[in-house]
Amino acid sequence: MHWSKRNTEEEVQEEVAVWECESTECVGWMRKNFSFDEKPSCPLCGSSMKSGERMLSKLTNLQGR
Questions:
Q1: What does the alpha-carbon distance between residue 55 and residue 58 come to, in Å, rounded to a whole number?
Q2: Which Pfam families does this one have (predicted)?
Q3: What is the pLDDT of residues 19-37, one digit of tens each?
């Protein structure tokens, strides 16, 4: 039997600006910094989106490595 310690690094969360779908039947949302449009439409249902905020995991940009 093998036992190992997993790397249990605590997940850092931050309040992030997001776009949220205005349709009550859709759960679509996206981070604002992932959108190129001034006011995007929902990628799931095509409805308009409204501005909001969510507590999300902090992302690290690995592109510069």
A1: 9
A2: YdjO (PF14169)
A3: 999 999 999 999 998 888 8
CA distances from 31 to 13, 14, 48, 49, 51 (A): 14, 12, 15, 12, 10
**Buried b / exposed e along 5-18 (16+ C-beta atoms within 10 A):** eeeeeeeeeeebeb
Token readout for 52 is 């909001």
DSSP-derived letter for residue 48 is B
**Does this model's pTM top 0.90?**
no
Checking if the pLDDT of 2 tops 80, the result is no
Instruction: Say whether pLDDT at 9 is over 90.
Output: no
Sign of the CA dihedral 33, 35, 37, 39?
negative
